[in-house]
Amino acid sequence: MTKWVWSGLATRVRTTRYPARQDGSGGVSPGFPAGRVLAPGDPGAVVERCPTGALQRRGGRIDVDQRRCVHCYRCAHGEDALDWAPGYEWAAATAESVRTAGMTQPAAGSERAAGQAVRLGRAFARSVHIRVVDAGDCGACLHEVKQLANPYYNAHRLGFFFTPTPRHADILIVVGPGTDQMRTALEKTYRAMPAPRRVIAVGACALSGGVFGPSFACADGVRSIIPVDIEVPGNPPPPFAILHALLVATGRAASADWAAATAWAASVEGTALPGQGYARPDGLPPEERGA
Ligand code: SF4
User: Fold this and answer.
1) Angle, helices 239-249/111-118, rounded to nearest 10 degrees
2) Measured between alpha carbons, how far is 131 from 108 in angstroms, rounded to an integer?
3) Which residues contact residue 56 at a Cβ distance below 8 angstroms, ignoring those fewer than 6 apart?
4) Beta strands in 147-252 (DSSP E)
5) Residue to probe by mutation, ligand 1, list 57, 65, 73, most atoms within 8 Å of CB
6) Of 8, 154, 155, 230, which has the most beta carbons under 10 Å away?
7) Burial of 268 (0-12, 13-18, 19+ CB in 10 A)
């Protein structure tokens, strides 16, 4: 232990300055594939390499559905590879968080309204307790969530604390696609939390089922079981993206803009994946989803 402390002091490893300052340290984020305009004669063959249907041709361009991207890097290689955009502030308020706050659906791009709906309020500015539920996670997203407590990210300095009981929790972080074995536990955890409560879904599996769902064993994401207020794409998302979600939940950062940009995916023909349409049991009844 003593050796570890002296080693840390000697190498000047310090806690990040984020969110006061953006963190550009190497390796803090893989970035995200960016869409592109299709040049004349470009068939957009890179779309066929995507295993989850996250890439789609729309009009004269290729768009990326961040909710489905599992960061496999298949689109990052080859002559027709996509460029990747840097950054990590990916957390976005969901349309459902707007509806449950009694607001009308915001127009595309007006994510500020969604951000206001999702905030917990001033009383939670510096003391927020978080319960984490593993709903069938492979371990990757859970590992990134755990990093928030290490000396580099040090979420405690921002007033974020982990709690082992949902009865003390203001925010529920869920990782994994929502397996049938975890469905009841997830519903019970949500019901046990006092209001106001917010739910953050972390990772592609929690957002869309990823490569696992919907299937005979799991849902197509957490929001088919409980309401989700903030979504964090990525597979896994880096700790900064999860920290950004917590800041959005407490009104200390703006929601990302990708949700409106990728809302088209559900309505575009041919985007359904094998297994979609599989009959799933309903999640919480409507009267409980709005609490
Ligand atoms: S990195 Fe994402 S968008 Fe690119 S091929 Fe893999 S899943 Fe599809």
Assistant:
1) 80
2) 31
3) 47, 62, 63, 65, 265, 268, 271
4) 160-162, 171-175, 198-202, 230-232
5) 73
6) 230
7) middle
Classify domain 1-291 by CATH number.
3.40.50.12280
- Chain length of the chain: 291
pTM: 0.84
162, HSE (Cβ side, Cα atoms, 13 Å): 13
Q: How many CB atoms lie within 10 A of CB 291?
A: 14
d(CA 206, CA 203): 5
Residue 258, both tokens: 């990708």
Q: What is the pLDDT of residues 94-137, one digit of tens each?
A: 866 654 444 334 344 444 445 556 777 777 777 899 999 999 99
State the residue for tokens 């190497």. Answer: 26
Contact 46, 82 (CB under 8 A): yes
Query: Smallest Cα–Cα separation from 129: which of 65, 34, 204, 194?
Result: 194
- Determine the Cα–Cα distance for residues 138 and 218; give it in Å rounded to an integer: 13
Predicted confidence at residue 167, as pLDDT, reads 97
Cβ-contact 221, 257 below 8 angstroms? no
Cα within 13 Å of Cα(65), Cβ side: 24
- Sorted by where each begins, the domain ranges of the chain are 1-291
Report whether 229 contacts 197 (CB < 8 A).
Answer: no
The pLDDT mean for the chain works out to 82
Whether residue 238 is predicted with pLDDT greater than 70 in this model: the reply is yes
CB 202 within 8 A of CB 175: yes
Closest ligand 1 atom number to CA of residue 64: 3
- Sorted by sequence, the CB contacts under 8 Å of residue 198 that are 6+ apart come out as 97, 118, 120, 170, 171, 172, 229, 230, 249
